[in-house]
Every structure is written in C-alpha cells, then in structure tokens.
C-alpha cells in the first residue's frame, strides 16, 4: 500500500502499518531476530512506532488544514484569508442609553448601568456630556402668559406661537368701518380716522377696553408686505428696537431693491434670517421673538412711497381670562371685506398644544408630545440623532436627556429589548435616570468554524459581477455589517404576479384596505364569510388600472394572486385591517418589475448597500425593493438604487408548562425557558418559517419539565395586540424575518 501523498489524497500510516514496516526493516537489517512485543527489539519497535505514527497523524492534519472543509481553528482562518475573508470576531451588544441629567453633567467613559431582569451590566463607550445642545429627549414648560411669541429653536429652526393677534392685509382708508368680535361679543364699529395708523390705534383701544384684555398693542408683524413697487430715488429706512438701520436706496428694479432691504435687515444682530418671500414681501425670523420689535419701515423720495401693510394688534389676556378673536369685518371704503387672519389665544394649555402642532409639522426629525400639564416633551425620531434646543422667555427646559452609547460588559448574544437598561450602577452627581427607547444591536459570539465555512461558500464568487450569485457574494463579503443577503430576479418581460397571503381567515367586523401604487382602494368590510370577503377584495383590485386578473386561492382561500397588464407596473405597499375580534397578518410577495432583481439585505448602512449594488448590477437592469438610496456615479449622475430590508414579523409565544416530579426544575426555570424561545428565534434568517414544533421543543432544554402546551402568533407591529394564539406554523415571506423578544414571550407552570 502506498502511503503519503497519492492521487487519491493523503494516506497516513496507522500504528499496525508502522509497526509492520519497522519489523520488516529490522529483520532485513539484522536477520532472523525476535520481534515479539516482550523482546528487546519488540519493545523498541513499539516505542518508535507510536512516535512515528504521531508524526504521520500530524502530517495528515497539516494536509487537511489546507482545505476549508477540513481545516479548523487558526488553520481555517489562514485558508479563508486566501479569499479575502476574515473570521468575524465576538461582538458586544450595543445599546443607546437615553440618560437624563442636569445640564452639563458628564457621563464618564466606563460608567456602568444594568438590566435589572437579566442582571447584565453595560459600560459607557465614551465620555458624553448631557446638554440641551446634544439632546434626544427634553421636557419644556410654558410658565406664563405674556405679550410675546413663544419660540422653540430646534437645530436653528424656529417653531413659534403667539398670543391672540389680529393681522390686516392692507392699510385702512377713507370710508372704512371695522367691527371686531371678541369671545362672541361684537364691539362697536370703529370708523376710519385721519390715517391708517390712527385708525388701528382706535381699534386697539376698543379691544383693550374689554375686561378680559390686559393690553392690545398695534405692531408691525414679522411678515411684511408693501402696497406698491419701489421706484427710482426711493430711500427705505427700517427701524428695529429703536435702532435705525442704514437706508436702502432704490437700485435697478423692484426685485433688486427688496433683496437689498432684506439683506440689510438680515445683518441686524437680533435677526436670524430675513428673506424675500414674495414680489413685495419679506419675512423675518428673529433670534428671540419676545425681545424683537420692528418699529417702522419708512420710504421717502421718488414719485411714490410704498408702505408696509402688514399691520397687527397683539392681545394679552388679563389674568384668569381667555381671549379668542372671532372675526374682524371691515366694510365700506377700499374693500367691502378687509381680509383678516387670527392666531387663537389663550391659556397655557393652548400655547403648549399649538407649539406641539407646529413642531410636528416642521422638518426637524423630532416628535413633540403634549403632556397635559402645561409642558411638552420633544423626542428625537432616532435616538442616535441628537438635536439642539433653546427656548424664549417664560419657557423653561425642565429635563434634558442625551444619547450615550453603552456596550455589554460581556461578549455574545445578549438581548437589549426596549426599556431594559434602567438601573444606574456608577453614582454620578446629576445623573438622574437611564433607559433605552429602542432595542439594542445584539452582539455575537466569535464566528464558529461551521459558520465561517458557510460564509466562505456564499462568498467564493466575490470577484464576479452582474450575476445573482456574484451580487449576493459581494454584498455579503464587502459591505460592513451585513449578516444575511439574498438576491431574487425577474428575467421576464412582464411584472411578476403579486401574492397577498393572509395568515388566517378574515372575521366579522374586519375592515380591509389595500394600498396600490400609493393609493388606497375602497375599503372592504367583512361580508358573510371569509371567502365572500376575499372575492369582494378581488373585485376592488380588478378595478385598478393595470391589474388584469385577480384570483382567490391558496391554503384556505387566503391568497390573492394579482396578474398585471403588460406594460403596467403595480406595487402593493400595504394591507391594513382594523376592527373585528381578530386581525390577521399579511405577507406580500413577488411583484418584481420586468427585467429587475431584488436584493434582500440584513445589516449594513443603506449607503454602503446601494453603492455595492451599483458596482455589481448589470447595465440596463432595474433594481427593486422597499428601500431606496440615491448614489452619485463616477460621471456625476444620480442613480437610485432599490433594495429591500427584511420586513420584521413579530412573534409572540405563550407556554403552559407541566413539571416532572422526578426532576428538579431550576428556580429561574421560567426565565430560562423564555430565553430559549428567543435564542431559537435568533437562529432564524430571512425567509425562514417559524415551525411550531421547533418552538415547542425548546421547553425541553430546561430540566424538570414533563410536557407543555406552546402556542404562537405573529403581528406586523412590535407593540400590536396579538390575536388568538395557535399551534401552527407561521409562514415568513422571502423578504421578511421573524423577530422574537422576551417582552413578547410568556411561560408559566400550571
């Protein structure tokens, strides 16, 4: 027999082979000698055979260490490095701690916090100062009613609301007669008196005479309109806070002159911005509206002198009163009805409510909430993105919370669900509380040999491009943070059929609305039976232009299959089900456009994934998915890359356990069972169904359990109320992923 390297691979000598080889060699050398085990030669042969056999075993190990399917440990690391692959290291769970503290409190690097339920500790990754200029959550109070504009300055954007104000869109003129209604009571008519300024003063005096009004003051508003165009030799002088600015002299035309005026006002120290917002209009945003006053804008010279016509009366209610301007009607004179607008007043609660409304309508990524106690909370939409905040007088920032990155003290798959990190361990003066408003990024153990081999197999075509396997391999291997990726394609000239799969039957009371191409089709109310209702949905879908045929079928007639007319592209973006005793979840599959592909990617940033798809996609082929990101190519052109993030399907587990009297059930057995459910869920990847029996089996990893009843259900929302738990599998679509959590897992001993 041939040993060593052979055409069939490496063939090592075993101990009997080596012993026989040495016996034959000694006999050939010394003649007919005694090689029995008890003899001297036999004992020598026995000792040397073991040593040489060990060498053969090591040579075999060296041989197999060169191949990924047989190499282990460090040897496997060296082998996969030839493909540019590095073993994924162990990682700690990362969570954003929202830390409330006094202004300018320093949370030092290494400060500890703990999850009370799991007893796991986390440490601050870096020094972080808690401040309103780096906030993710704040609480603001409105302290007093005053004649001012209440302003929250968020990331240099002003969100403001004032007390009652009457705005007039033109000057008063001869023949005008104005009637104001306050709190449902019409005042006596105020006639035109000499000029516009005198007339508005008379109207303010009439309003101020009411017992519920503290003051009514004529002011020039922050949105200023002129009644005429500027003309040659006009000189315009603006006065702010009694300070006269440099006069602006007419130059070239109306647009140039009003732009010069806006620039002059913009340069004043109390003004944040002053911009031209119309042919004869400028809008001013002051640094502090409560201490800003536009005294006048006077035009001299020229054959005509435009005047500002945005006149207002600011109203401050008397203590204990609320003031609402119902209307102001002007008759006669220049116009039968002078246009007016009103800012409704009132109590501190109304000021808070209005501020919440304007903040939520703004462009900053924050959400304001009325706390119903004359305070509002402002929360960043993403706790990893902070904002800065300052407020005007008579407002107070009561609480400030900033984002602090915390890492688990131990490596591994330690979950950090929402609201789990709540206990402060390191005493720091001024540090009040901590929580996490979103789940942490779970860490991992060091990548095992089996996982590394599998990842190498998925990446061996990493140098290719324009094929499904190459695109997938390069996303997996070359995009940092990506843990899973799948690529699906439609090679035909027609759009794929779309399947809407209902997890269970529709029930009495359900109202179903399907959104197609961004528009909701008419809502269908449950009628008689599940099948009848599905057929009603079919009728509504077939009425959509571009849909040629809809069929009802699948298991239990719970699938709507949509076929498209050639040349049309249809997208089903959502199915909403409300009312009824239970609301089934739905899965939407297919619908890829003609000649397109869809990459379903877990992990990595949108930008990195989009850039890698652009590098590897075939020319002239569409990308498809529920996420888009615009990149700039080498020619400076914008390219929209579409791909999908797996839609989370939230899994709920309920278990009733029966104990085995012959075994000991641990004191923390319930916690262990619940954690085992979650651990199983973390093994599921994109598109993997949740198998009920596999979930059931997890209870037997803990000693002392004789049997159990385990039921599961899924929801589309993380905090949705689950329907009826069932002993059945949960189907996960090819662009979905099952998500387990301790907060949705319950076990008890019965």
Keyword list:
750 residues, alpha+beta, nine-stranded antiparallel sheet, four-stranded antiparallel sheet, 12 helices, 21% helix, 35% strand
Short précis:
By secondary structure, the protein is α+β, with helices and mostly antiparallel strands. The chain folds into 6 domains: 4-64, no CATH class; 92-142 and 365-435, no CATH class; 161-346, no CATH class; 461-491 and 595-643, no CATH class; 498-590, no CATH class; 648-749, no CATH class.
Question: Could you characterize the architecture of this molecule?
Answer:
The chain is of the alpha+beta class and 750 residues long. The chain folds into six domains: 4-64, no CATH class; 92-142 and 365-435, no CATH class; 161-346, no CATH class; 461-491 and 595-643, no CATH class; 498-590, no CATH class; 648-749, no CATH class. The chain is built from twelve helices and 48 strands. The strands form 13 sheets. Strands 3, 5, 6, 8, 26, 27, 29, 30 and 31 form a nine-stranded antiparallel β-sheet that branches. α1 crosses α2 and α8 (468-478) runs antiparallel to α10 (606-616). The protein starts with a strand and ends with a strand.
Give the overall silhouette.
elongated
**Number of spatially distinct domains:** 6
Poorly predicted ranges: 335-341
**Share of helix, binned:** 10-25%
Tally of contiguous helical segments? 12
Q: What does the radius of gyration come to? A: 38 Å
- The rounded distance between the terminal residues' Cα atoms is 66 Å
Largest β sheet strand count, sense and barrel closure: 9 strands, antiparallel
